[in-house]
Amino acid sequence: MSMIDTLNREKTLAMKAKSAAGTAEEREAADLRLSVVRMLLGAISEAETSGKQRTTLNDEQVVSLLKKEAAKRRATAQTFEEAGRTLRAQQETWEAEYIGTFLPRETSPEAIEEFIVRYVAETDLPAGGKAIGVVLGALKAEFSSFDTRAASEAVRKYL
């Protein structure tokens, strides 16, 4: 099932949960889920129609878009937190976490570090900044999903 199909299925489930909700809290939770999924589907639709020709995003592009949307929510939550609007910050944080449920699991930092240590020990790396690029390229070839910022810091630590 594609990512877009998964989001459409989640939209249907949220709509059913909203109509079947017994309490106001259940209805509000389902409504929040529904609004986030609709926002994600809207962002996908906008990305598909933003160029000169309409395109269909593949799963990799959808995952990239979802990561950007989650990052926006985390940044907004931090801004609200700094402004003293904790309730709004909590909602943005929840939205980012909910978006994260649609993303593939990232490789653990421990597995990344283990790979880096092994790769650095087994490979004759070029000197300087090129070594970081070589190791990050090997990481991308080995793992499908990982935090690139944390991986880059780990590579610098071991070089």
UniProtKB/TrEMBL annotation:
InterPro entries: Asn/Gln_tRNA_amidoTrase-B-like, YqeY/Aim41, YqeY/Aim41_N. Gene3D superfamilies: Uncharacterised protein YqeY/AIM41 PF09424, N-terminal domain. GO terms for molecular function: carbon-nitrogen ligase activity, with glutamine as amido-N-donor. Coiled coil: none annotated. This is GatB/YqeY domain-containing protein. It comes from Leucobacter luti.
